[in-house]
Structures are given as C-alpha cells and as structure tokens.
Amino acid sequence: xxxxxxxxxxxxxxxxxxxxxxxxxxxxxxxxxxxxxxxxxxxxxxxxxxxxxxxxxxxxxxxxxxxxxxxxxxxxxxxxxxxxxxxxxxxxxxxxxxxxxxxxxxxxxxxxxxxxxxxxxxxxxxxxxxxxxxxxxxxxxxxxxxxxxxxxxxxxxxxxxxxxxxxxxxxxxxxxxxxxxxxxxxxxxxxxxxxxxxxxxxxxxxxxxxxxxxxxxxxxxxxxxxxxxxxxxxxxxxxxxxxxxxxxxxxxxxxxxxxxxxxxxxxxxxxxxxxxxxxxxxxxxxxxxxxxxxxxxxxxxxxxxxxxxxxxxxxxxxxxxxxxxxxxxxxxxxxxxxxxxxxxxxxxxxxxxxxxxxxxxxxxxxxxxxxxxxxxxxxxxxxxxxxxxxxxxxxxxxxxxxx
Length: 403
Description:
Elements: H1 24-38, H2 42-63, H3 67-82, H4 94-113, H5 118-121, H6 133-137, H7 152-165, E1 171-175, H8 180-192, E2 197-203, H9 208-214, H10 238-247, E3 250-254, H11 256-270, H12 276-286, E4 297-299, H13 308-321, E5 325-333, H14 338-348, E6 352-359, E7 369-377, H15 381-393, E8 397-402
Parallel strand pairs: 1-2, 1-4, 2-3
Antiparallel strand pairs: 5-7, 5-8, 6-7
Helix pairs in contact: 1-2, 2-3, 2-4, 3-4, 7-8, 8-10, 11-12, 11-13
C-alpha cells in the first residue's frame, strides 16, 4: 500500500505508514466519504459541510463584510462544489479545493457589485468592469505609471494578509514618502472595507505629502532632513497625491526621537529590526498621534534596511526617549566625598551609573569647583525625576541633563 503523504510503499496489512506515521484508516475514511458524496449521499454531503464550513466562511469573510451576503456566498460555494465533486481526484485536498471555490465565488460577487477603476486613476481608459478586485489591482497596465512605486502584487498580498489575519481591523497605518505604498493600500482597503480608517505617517523633517494634503495644494519642499531615508522625499507623486486626497483619512508626522523610540520598541517587544521609514507608523501609534485608542490597528512596517552605525545611535536615542537612560551634569565643590554622596543617592534611588566624567577645566567655574557628568541607566522618566529631586534635596545643583 502506497502512502499518500510520503509516497512510500508499505505492506497491505499495516494500519499506518511505517515511515511517516500517516494513518491509512483515515485515508480510507476520506476516500469513502468522497465516494458517498459523489453518489449524492446526503449524510456524506452534510459531513463535508460540517468539516469545512468554518474554513470556507473565513475565506469569504475576508473579502465581504455584510454577514447576510457572506452566508449566501457560503451556500453558493457548496452548491458549486457539490456539483463538481467528480473534478476532485485527491480526497486529501478537499478543504483547499473548497476554499479555492469560495475565493472565486466571493470575487465573482465583487466583480458584479463592486467594480473598481484603478486603471482610470492610473491614467488608463480601459474598462475594468470585467475584473474582480484582486485581478484589477494586479492588472499589468498599472505598471505603466512610474509613480506607482510599489508592485501591484505586493499591494494585493499586503492588503489581503492584513484582512485575513485581522478581519475586524479598525485602522491601517502606513509610512508615506512619495505616496506609492499608501495610495495602493488605501485604495485597496477602501474598495473592500470602506469603514476601515487609513492613516499615513511622515517624518517631521520630510513632510511633503502631509503639507500637500493639509494645505490642499500639491507642493515641493525646498529641503528635507531625516534619518528615515526611505521616506525622505521632497516632492510627492502627482497621481499618488490625488489618490491620497480621495482615500486617505489623515496624515500625521513624527519626530526623529519618536521614530527612534519606535525602532527600539520593535526590537524589544517584537524582536524585529526596522528602518526609520518602516517604524514611523508604530511611532505615530505609540505617541498618540492618531485617534486609535482601544481599536484594532495594523501598522505596516515596510523595511529593515538600517545602517549599523545609525542603529547604534537610534538605540541610544530610543533609551533616552523612553526614560531608560539619562545624562546629568552636576556642579560640585571639588573636595573629597562629593562623588561618594552623589553615588549613594543614585544607588538609593535604584539607578545604575554606566559613565562618570569629572571636568574641572571649565573656565566659567570657580577654581575650587567642577562639573560631574553622569550617564545613568534608569527604569523610566519617573525614576529620573526622583533622582533629580533627591540630588536637589541634598544641595546639589543640576546644571544640565537630557531626559
């Protein structure tokens, strides 16, 4: 007996494959079930329905929002499938085969009820009524417009993955440079799920699309400056600007420090290394730039191409922004015991000193005084404030610090 799973031959009297452990009884049951279903056995058809209904429902639910319509399309799927059971040769592929029919059924419904006109937006006049959503956004004519920088298939896969993994998503947050990525994502999301919010995020040092949308005027910036070089764009695309005006709900900006904190958060919490351009959506959510409190949000982290030297500085800046690292400069009398007192206060507050610099060469200081520069590892901003308060209470003067 040949095993359908590993393809190896086994003795006829064994109940499972001696090579991979596949149970032959289950295969026989599946074959028998499909054989009875082909002969229109109602009990077998009902069993197939109960085993696969949830999988079929999920496939259709990704594309169609209305619950009544989803249920109707599920029934249509099984009507089509049960009339074509003779086409299925491998009983092990029954569920994937049903899911394929479900996907096609949902796309046929979208073709009739929700035709989209992406080609017209891209400057093409071809009639798109014959295309379903997924086919339309993968149409080759879209590539003729150079402003649509993100490949159409990537947009399709990205949007379908978001809706598949988080079908009840409330908002999608996307990084914005010239607008190619967000225009494709926004158009796709709004075509399938118009109630889902689509937000864009730019760096404060390169807000070309942000200014264009908020001032309702397509414009070019004189200069841009941000370490998020993937979105360091002076001029947004003309076409993408038009699409963003129509489909994007809002665009906000984030600072360099906020972006650095987001990169650090992704590394710590998700074990994910993101470049600046990919981390700006997370920064916008972390620092409450968008009205998404208590909602289910998908942030598009679009890349991880970050220079190691930049990453080192970003991590340091992120630690400072999150209150995990602080630099303090204290004016001291240059006499024995002062450093010990400061160290005791820092230790009592639960912080750790990682760097100490004693500077007595400042010409603005008295001869008998000096600057003590400390770098501390801390838990949060509250602990930093506690250290400051304790130092002031003991009579030490804080000259400058970075929190």
